[in-house]
Structure formats: structure tokens, C-alpha cells
Amino acid sequence: MLHNGAVIASSCLPIVATSLLRIDAAADQAPLSAQQQLFNAWVQRIADQRAWLLAWDEAVQACRSRFARDGVPLRTRYLDLQAALALYLDQQSARKLSKLERQLLESCLLESAQQVVDLSDTPAQRAAMEELVRRYTPEEDDEPEEDAAQAAPSAEQASNASDDIDWQDPEAVAQFLEAQEQAAAAQAERARAQHRAKRQQRKAQQAQKAKGPTAAELANQSLREVYRRLASRLHPDREQDPVERARKTALMQRVNIAYEASRLMELLELQWEAEQMDPAKLAQLSDARLAPYNRMLEEQWNDLQRDVQARTQAFAREFGLDTAKRLQPAKLMAQVRERLQQLQAGVDYLRQLLQALEDDPDTLKQWLKHERTWVRQRDQ
């Protein structure tokens, strides 16, 4: 079971300036432009998502503490019972059984042993189950190997085709020369196609240069401008006061992290935290200047969405939940309680089953029949 306590930096940084990053229209000015409204929307979306991730981290920590207390002992007992069932079925494989009963026994044995192999933290237990898995896993039929003589070309076939030409036969010579001409023409056409492709690529590059920088280049340029202003403001070597130097060093470390991850919103917040941000300046930025900012914020939002998906799927795998199910921080503990109930039910079922098998050996065939019915219903 995974216990990934790592926290991604995008959700660790303090949310200190979200409200100050908002562009508000003054009473005596025109309404916000489309780019200004988009900027506000991305800032709010990112702030909401980062708050969600912080709540998620807190909920996951609480769930792990609860599962470590109540779930780990239950899971250990459950795996011990699964291993005991696999060993019992291994012993019963020597009994006289029908072909169908034997197939069901081996299938159930493999399922129990594989669960222990996948989840057990005990090396000896896992090794014993791995041995059962190796013994009872059906052998796959080997694919017929291709005849080496047919697969590999002979030395004569690999040699120059001209060696096989009967130069005394005019028709054979004509066919050989025609084939040579066709090959030369095809090679020339490939060379011309490559030349045309390179020429078109150069033209496209020249046309792009004439149009000016791309949207991505403008976004990166905007990111660099904010970073450079912060680096100039916070450079520790320019500060004489030790306390202020320490503060700027810590801020600069966060600036570098945000810049390397292309997270514009963190840089803007750090710009405010460094007492360099004037909220009024945001409203004075033209749409042309805001557009690259909006593209960077959109990329940051997409990164956060991928972060959310990765975390929810990791949590689902960790606690044996459906990875396709949408999870919310406020409902995580309920998911863990449900998982604990499932583990307890599994422990109770296996304990009762093993006791019944021990009390009456004939119970095995009845159980196998029940398993066959269950499998049919599941597959329908």
C-alpha cells in the first residue's frame, strides 16, 4: 500500500494575494475589457483549486491516520485468511474432483494467492504465495516458431541482384535495366520531396519571423519580465541587513521554484509579498500585455487539474477504491469507513468459510458450486 506523503509545490505556496490580484473597474472608468475579465476568472479558478488541494492534503492525512489505526490490522488479518485458504485449496487439489471442480479450485486458489502477493508486507508469506501462483498458473501454448530458413534471407538473396541475371537473355536484361531505372527514379523523387519539405519549412519559419513572436514566446517573455523584476528586487547579495537578507533569500527561493514551474500566479503573489506590487498597475495593463498573462494562468490551471487527477487516482489505488470515481475532500473519510467495513466483512466471510471447510470436507464441493454460480452472474 502506498503512503505518498509528498506535497506538490503548487499547493504549498501561501495564498496571500488572490484578492489583491483582482482587477476592479473604477467608478469613473469604462467596464473591464474581455482580457481583464479573463484574468480575474483565471486568478479565481486557480485560487479555488489551490484551496481544494490544501483541503485534500488535510483530508488524506486524516484518512491515513485512521487507516493506520484500524485498517492495517484488518488488512493483515484478511491477507492471513486468504493465504490460509490458498494453502487449504492446495492441499485439497489431491482429492478426486471433476474437471470443472478442479478448474474452479485452481482459479479460486490463484485469486487468493495473488491478492496476498500483491498486498502482503510479509516476505515469507508473499514468497509462499508466489510459489503457489507459479505452480497453478496455466502454461501458455508457445507460438510456433517461424522457420529460420524462411525468416532470414539467404546469402544469395542478399547479394547483388545482378548476379542472378542471365546476360545472354535479352528479355531478362531488359527487365533488369527497367527495374534499375525505376529504383533510380524513385530515389530521385524521394530526394526532391525532401528538398521541397525543407524549403517549405524554411518558408514557414521566415513567415513566422515576419509575423513576430508566437503566443508561447510572448507568454514566456512576460514570465521572464516578472521574474527579472523580482530577482532584481530580492537579490540577497545586495542587502546589508542580515534579517532582511534572510527574508529575501527565502523569498528568492520561492521565486525560483515558481519560475522553473512557469507558475505566473505565484510570481505575481510574491511580487506583492515583496512589497513591489501596486494593485493599480494591473488595471493599467493593456490587453496586449494581459493576453500572455492569461495564457500562462491557463497553463497553470491545466497543471493543477492534472495534479488533482493524479492525487485522486493515487488515493483510490491506495485504499482500494474505484479510480474512475470522483472524490471530494469532505467525503474521503466516508470512503475510508466504507473500505474498513468491506475489509471486516471479508475477514468474517473467510473465517466462517475456513471453519466450515475444516468441520466438513464435503463443504468444499458445495462452495465450489456456489463460486461457479457467482462467476456466471458476475460475467453476465
From TrEMBL:
Residues 139-148 have a biased composition (Acidic residues). Residues 193-202 have a biased composition (Basic residues). Residues 136-162, 180-220 are annotated as: Disordered. Residues 149-159 have a biased composition (Low complexity). It comes from the Bacteria. This is J domain-containing protein. The lineage of its organism: Bacteria, Pseudomonadati, Pseudomonadota, Betaproteobacteria, Burkholderiales.
